[in-house]
Amino acid sequence: MSAQRSATKPHYTAGVIQRLATANNVSVVVTSNEVFAHHVTRLSGDDVNFDPIENTIVALQRAGLLDRVQAVRLQARYLRESRP
User: Which domain of life is it from (predicted)?
Assistant: First the structure.
């Protein structure tokens, strides 16, 4: 059933995430520590690139609007919906 739901509304969760951020005036801010961490993971062969929606989930968690479990579940739902 979830496959049907994903097929009918592929960007639903992305919209929910964006509306939650907008309603709470949360924006993505890249810090120097994040830039450093990105380069360390890239150089170690574990290059991880979040898209803007995933970065917004991290910003919502940092703002205290999501706990860790909620953030992981929201990201998993978003990734399921965005798969081809």
Answer: Bacteria
What's the predicted TM-score (pTM) here? Answer: 0.80
Q: How far apart are CA 12 and CA 16, in angstroms?
A: 6
Q: Are 64 and 36 in contact (CB under 8 A)?
A: no
**Segments making up each domain of the chain, as ranges:** 10-21+50-83
pLDDT band for 40, please (50, 70, 90 cuts): very high
